[in-house]
């Protein structure tokens, strides 16, 4: 295929993907075009350098993006195929969207009202789908909207997305995020905001840009621009129809309480013209593994954990991606139907009964150390839901027999008697032999 640039030092990634040219590059990640050797399908492979990522504070964004994309199966959303990892890199396999960014197309000139409406229909179909699943994008802009070879729009870049789990008791989100020109006035007010209403505002800015060819709120002075956004001061160009003007005023309403909703849009005269509801079967847009996303953490790609819909719901804070971001030298991990506090309490009781030293960790965890210092056990606990926790156990020292006696014979059975739901080993992973920086 013309996209592949063969190089003698590059072989198939995990024996499955033939890497081609670089199509995007950032501070800690590169995006390659690649071909699935088995199917011949073109895909995009985002290669994230863990070492470069670790000091940026963006690890949470990457985890969130993977988690959210794994839950979204819609014809106008970029599809996540699978996630693979080695000690130093994470490989996110996604749709390769050949048409590039909508931004590149609009930068050449404004669209007709009909074409703007067609893209807006597709955008709202994707956004409404996300909202129905409790997911809010929070960074909708033409740079994050891609076009496939058929000119169909695809929403991408969920790194700033929020899920309903992040909503505070007041029912609002409070994180400041988004791109300045597309940010809603209530975010600037710093009083909390409704994620769905914020996305609608950003969609309004996108629609204005498509039809007008420039931003509704813009100024070289950021504070002046923010003042315009806060007051909702914008002017429609003369070529925009009266119906579209009225519709834009509903989208760019500075009061989130009266701002139009996705459901109300479908009754608006301008929006309804040529509108057809997007009908699809979610399974047609799921991952290559059915309902789940493969998370492979072994260098040879042989050990893949498939998470189905039940797993995703159980892990309410998202997929367990911690294995992609750290090294687990033979650590064991499992999920218990128990509170983290009770798990730590049991570990302390067993350790004390065995005459071991007990040291609390900063996070929810504890270290048990043999009095002769020849071995120890480190336990970390992560809350998944109100009734479930994930436990990670590591051995310290070289006395494997003493460790096994404490862990396998005494402590683990006592923890599991409380009702483990799943258990697996996470072996240490070799370096990737296939990708160079």
From TrEMBL:
This is non-specific serine/threonine protein kinase. One of its GO terms (molecular function) is protein serine/threonine kinase activity. Belongs to the protein kinase superfamily. CAMK Ser/Thr protein kinase family. SNF1 subfamily. The keyword Zinc does not apply. ATP binds at residue 46. SMART domains: S_TKc. It comes from the Eukaryota. It comes from Pisum sativum. Its EC number is 2.7.11.1. PANTHER family: CALCIUM/CALMODULIN-DEPENDENT PROTEIN KINASE KINASE-RELATED, NON-SPECIFIC SERINE_THREONINE PROTEIN KINASE. It catalyses: L-threonyl-[protein] + ATP = O-phospho-L-threonyl-[protein] + ADP + H(+); L-seryl-[protein] + ATP = O-phospho-L-seryl-[protein] + ADP + H(+). One of its GO terms (biological process) is signal transduction. InterPro entries: Kinase-like_dom_sf, NAF/FISL_domain, NAF_dom, Prot_kinase_dom, Protein_kinase_ATP_BS, Ser/Thr_kinase_AS.
